């Protein structure tokens, strides 16, 4: 469970002025809930994710995860980045095992677990490949497996499918949902694609353009498990996508 | 015909070497001056030098100093470079120092170093160490600075401390860049090795070279130059083998220009 209270973040710019990136964000995410953060680029949505991850400090306000205030990164919150951020000197197996070895899991056990996860993300047979030998979609599968390996209770996903072509992207959305259905971890998912957010989430939080404030929250009561082919012809899905797109385009009220 | 030449990888360099020797031979015959003996006379000295116990001891002295200087530089320069890349404070401290020292030819420091440490191994090794350190610090610094932030975050999320990240993430991620620095450093080591022996003549390859020059033994001078060149070539080939084995995982690094002092 994530509790964000009155959170703001300002950066110092090149010209030594202060730029407000996030203003007064209050949001709580229940355990097992899949929440997407939608917003135009530059609205600070990724920054919000980094603050929850403990990678970036907020300027004011508080973030608590499972009741404890966030003071830094920790294995309870597993990030997946748009840039994949794999360790290029490690093989697929080495990458997926990395967190387990780091946490002192004995090697045979870590390897067995990593191999199972590599199978789960459909990369069986690629264990000894290096990241440079993989396509973007395969790299992101490795990154997802690497994060799942050390068992975080919360997944922090920073536009994870943003760098992929449309075909790979929809394929991975499906695969990821299937994996998520198995144990329904809490997910905070940043994206700028309305369709992606509606397809994946239980709730969508729309942010305003800079500074990012919460503009609207939309609960999505679409049945799970979801199938893209069925949803695309579903009136409720279509209405939700159109409504949220309209919401994003609507002029922002003065604070 | 063209296909046949390029299909033999060893042939083009052999042709280049042959052409250079032919040019040298021709120039020596045309100009006929003492300072330019024909290639075959210089090459004839090679077996004599390589068979001479004292010459071999001198060459080994040089190689030993170079190896020690390089090893010390690796041990000192890489950690400094990596720390500079990850800490703005460390970078702000070392950067002005490096900017000042970089353009100074390290061999020019030799006379001063000789005042402190004498003309023996210590001063020459120190000068080689300085020559190799700068490109190594520079490239380690660039490598560490370019490490993807998200890669470090991914490691931090696994519970890895900042100090461990420096060794387990920043060091391997910077290896391709560090190797670029080592390659430049090796060439500089060879150059500073010879020049230091030129200034403090006591032993070494440079010592033989410049003593022969004084005695007007020009064929030996040229033979020594060939030996130094071959030494550089062998080192570079061996290093490239090592590099391609150790960082086979890396995306190709841009070819590098050779540094000078």
Number of helices of chain A: 8
Roughly how many Å apart are the termini of chain B? 42 Å
Q: What does the radius of gyration of chain B come to?
A: 22 Å
Parts with pLDDT < 50 across at least 5 consecutive residues of chain A = none
Strand order of the largest sheet of chain A: 6-7-8-3-9-10
Name of the CATH superfamily of chain B? MetI-like
Provide key terms for this protein.
heterodimer, A: 255 residues, alpha/beta, Rossmann fold, six-stranded mixed beta sheet, four-stranded antiparallel beta sheet, 8 helices, B: 261 residues, mainly alpha, MetI-like fold, 79% helix, 0% strand
What features would you describe in this structure?
The complex is a heterodimer of chains A (255) and B (261). Chain A has 255 residues and is an alpha/beta fold. Chain A is 36% helix and 25% strand. In chain A, the strands form two sheets. In chain A, strands 6-7-8-3-9-10 form a six-stranded mixed β-sheet, with helices on both faces. Chain A has a four-stranded antiparallel β-sheet with strand order 2-1-4-5, with helices on one face. In chain A, helix 2 runs parallel beside helix 4, helix 3 crosses helix 4 and helix 6 crosses helix 8. The longest helix of chain A has 18 residues. With 261 residues, chain B is an all-alpha fold. Chain B has a single domain, classed as MetI-like fold (Orthogonal Bundle). In chain B, helix 4 crosses helix 5 and helix 6 packs across helix 7. The two termini of chain B are 42 Å apart. The C terminus of chain B is likely disordered.
């Amino acid at each position: 469970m994530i509790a964000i209270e009155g959170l703001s973040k300002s950066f110092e710019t090149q010209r030594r002025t202060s730029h407000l990136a996030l203003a007064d964000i209050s949001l709580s995410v229940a355990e097992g809930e899949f929440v997407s953060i939608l917003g135009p680029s530059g609205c600070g949505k990724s920054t919000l994710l980094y603050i929850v991850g403990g990678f970036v400090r907020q300027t004011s306000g508080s973030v608590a995860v499972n009741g404890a205030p966030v003071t830094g990164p920790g294995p309870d919150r597993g990030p997946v980045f748009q840039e994949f951020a794999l360790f290029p000197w490690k093989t697929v197996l080495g990458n997926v095992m990395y967190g387990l070895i780091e946490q002192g899991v004995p090697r045979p056990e870590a390897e067995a677990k990593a191999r199972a996860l590599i199978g789960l993300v459909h990369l069986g047979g690629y264990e000894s490949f290096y990241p440079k030998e993989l396509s973007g979609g395969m790299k992101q599968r490795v990154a997802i497996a690497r994060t799942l390996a050390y068992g975080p209770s919360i997944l922090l996903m920073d536009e994870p499918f943003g760098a992929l072509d449309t075909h790979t992207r929809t394929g991975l959305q499906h695969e990821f949902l299937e994996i998520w259905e198995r144990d329904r971890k809490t997910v905070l998912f940043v994206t700028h694609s309305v369709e992606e957010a509606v397809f994946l989430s239980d709730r969508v939080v729309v942010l305003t353009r800079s500074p990012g404030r919460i503009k609207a929250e939309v609960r999505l009561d679409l049945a799970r498990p979801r199938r893209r082919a069925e949803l695309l012809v579903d009136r409720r899905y279509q209405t939700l996508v159109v409504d949220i797109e309209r919401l994003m385009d609507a002029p922002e009220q003065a604070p | 015909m063209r296909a046949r030449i390029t299909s033999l990888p060893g042939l083009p360099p052999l042709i280049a070497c042959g052409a250079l020797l032919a040019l040298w031979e021709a120039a020596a015959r045309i100009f006929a001056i003492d300072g330019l003996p024909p290639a075959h006379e210089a090459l004839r000295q090679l077996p004599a030098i390589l068979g001479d116990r004292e010459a071999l001891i001198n060459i080994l002295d040089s190689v030993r100093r170079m190896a020690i200087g390089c090893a010390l530089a690796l041990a000192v320069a890489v950690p400094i470079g990596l720390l500079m890349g990850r800490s703005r404070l460390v970078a702000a401290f070392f950067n002005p120092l490096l900017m000042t020292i970089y353009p100074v030819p390290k061999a020019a420091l030799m006379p001063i170093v000789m005042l402190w440490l004498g003309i023996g191994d210590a001063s020459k090794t120190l000068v080689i160490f300085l020559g190799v350190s700068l490109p190594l610090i520079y490239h380690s610094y660039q490598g560490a600075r370019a490490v993807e932030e998200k890669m470090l975050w991914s490691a931090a999320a696994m519970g890895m401390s900042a100090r461990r990240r420096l060794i387990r993430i920043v060091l391997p991620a910077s290896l391709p860049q560090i190797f670029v620095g080592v390659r430049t450093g090796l060439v500089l080591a060879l150059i500073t090795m010879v020049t230091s022996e030129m200034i403090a003549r006591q032993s070494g390859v440079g010592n033989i070279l410049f003593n022969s020059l004084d005695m007007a033994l020009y064929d030996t001078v040229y033979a020594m130059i060939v030996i130094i060149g071959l030494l550089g070539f062998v080192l570079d080939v061996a290093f490239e083998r090592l590099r391609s084995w150790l960082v086979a995982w890396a995306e190709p690094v841009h070819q590098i220009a050779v540094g000078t002092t």
